[in-house]
Every structure is written in C-alpha cells, then in structure tokens.
C-alpha cells in the first residue's frame, strides 16, 4: 500500500541561486525520504547543530533539500518492520537526522527502524525532548564508565562543562548512582544549580585550563569530559590508578597535549563516547537509565516549550549563545 500524500508543515533548508535558505514549507508524505517506519512527530528540540544547519554557519547539512532537527519524538502511524506497530511512542536522536536524512523539524518523518527506541512509559515525548541528545550522551558516558568496571566506592567523579547540557545530565546521573561528584564550571553563579543537581564539590574551570605536569595528584576515580584539549589532559593526569575518563566533547580543542604516562604508569583509560550511531541495544539501555534515574519534573523546570511557528527564529539564536537550557518544540 502506498503511503498517503497528506500535507504537513516542515522547516526545509534549500541551496539555490540565492544561497542557503531555511523556511517553513508545506510538504507531502511522498516527499519523505526512504524508511520503514512512519512517525507523526509531536515534539522536537533545538540543538546547537540545528542552529548551525539553519544559519549555514558551519557545513552541517550533507545534502539538499534538508529538514533539520537531530532530535524527535512521536507516535508510529505506519510500519513495515516487525519491531514497531502503529501507536508505538518512539524517540530518535542523531543517526544523521538533520544532516543526511530529514529530521525532526517537521510534523512527519519516515525513518529506519534501527534509529528508533520505544520510549519508556514513564516518559512523555515532551520529556524525552527535554532530555534529547544531551541527556542521551551523558547516559552513554555513565554507562561507559560502568561497563569499564568503575563504581562509586572507588573514589570521586568529575564532570567538566557541568553547567552545559551534557554536563548537567552527567552530574545528575552520577549523583543518582551514588558518586561524589565534582562539577567543573567557569560560571561561579551556577554553583547552586549544580549542587541542586547533586554535585558535592565545585571546581573552577581555570584550575584545569593551564597545561600541567603529565602526572598530577590523583584526585578522581572517574570522569566525564565535555571539553577536550588541555582540560582533558589535566583530568587524565589527575585520574587515580585504574580509573577512566569518558570523553564526548571537543569545545576546548581537538588536540590532546598529553603523553602515555597516565596510561602506562597508572593504568588510566580514555573512553571515547559518541552518540550518533544507532547501536539499538545500548540506546535502549541508556533511555531506560534516563527514565529511571532523572528527576523529570526538575528537568521540565529547566526547559521551555515553544510552538513550531517559533522554532525557525529561535534556532537562529542558539548560535549566538542566546539560549539557556533546553528549548522543546511542540509540533501541533
């Protein structure tokens, strides 16, 4: 049976004689890209990558036309895959959405089944978008540390960029799991916010931004780093014997000015974490963890919900640093 051709609203990015342009358009389901599950999108969220795609500030989009939006949640309306049936509530993040495949800034999507996770019943689609890629990445970092064999009784944990999206979720998840968490931030005014998330100690970002010795006092058993660069090098130098750092960001630079010393003299591990590839079983584990361990009501207090009609303008502002917290888009 052919999919219906019902009209829906979308933000579409086109590349033409006038250059890069993003605008609201009417589309039909016949224009959707290939996939085996059809979804009515109820919510999406604005990520930094979406702002880059819409403004063209960086080459995020890999094909045109493109619907941006790396996060989406909604209800299955049609499925040609045994894992899903109409009525299933699902979430999708990453997987090339908004870059190579039409993403979440639309009222409908057609997706590959292995990109989708059935949303835990304790989470609503709006809550899932409050969590989004940032929360999923944090959960994957926590799981990486646990799968490596680390646990709270081994010593304290540290989180860099702790007032940001990934960092905030990482602090909350680690604290819920029983870790004593040191939150690293460059904004002293965020101390109360970080303690409310579960951090017991606050460390100034400046303490980690100057290159130090290759081996330093052993302050942490585990860490989640969202920064990279010199900050990550210092964390590795301060990690205790047989500890590990899960790294997921590079805002501080792609270079890593360290040596083999932490690895071969203290047995420290550097665990790389990425949140783009599907890896369905791991994603399901992460979303279950998020549903069980996060105080969703507290998360909702840190988010703002806007109608789809405001999404285009608000996405443009995120690249200017004008958005704090999570902006959830209600598509209806």
Q: Could you characterize the architecture of this molecule?
A:
Helix content is 28%, strand content 27%. The mean pLDDT is 93. The relative contact order is 0.15. α1 (48-55) crosses α9 (311-318), α2 (125-148) packs across α3 and α2 packs across α7. The protein has helices at 48-55, 125-148, 165-176, 191-197, 229-237, 261-265, 280-293, 296-301, 311-318, and strands at residues 7-16, 19-28, 37-45, 71-79, 89-93, 108-111, 117-118, 157-159, 181-185, 201-204, 220-225, 239-247, 269-272, 303-307, 326-330. β11, α5 and β12 (239-247) form a beta-alpha-beta unit.
Instruction: Using the 3D structure, state the CATH architecture of the largest domain.
Output: Alpha-Beta Complex
Integer average pLDDT: 93
Instruction: Describe the largest sheet.
Output: 7 strands, mixed
How many extended strands? 15
Secondary structural class: alpha/beta
CATH homologous superfamily classification of the largest domain? Medium-chain alcohol dehydrogenases, catalytic domain
Shape: globular
Number of helices: 9
Q: Give the percentage of residues in beta strands.
A: 25-35%
Q: How would you spell out the order of helices and strands?
A: EEEHEEEEHEHEHEEHEHEHHEHE
The figure for the number of domains is: 2
- Per CATH, what is the topology of the largest domain? Quinone Oxidoreductase, Chain A, domain 1
Gap between N and C termini, in Å?
27 Å
CATH class of the largest domain: Alpha Beta
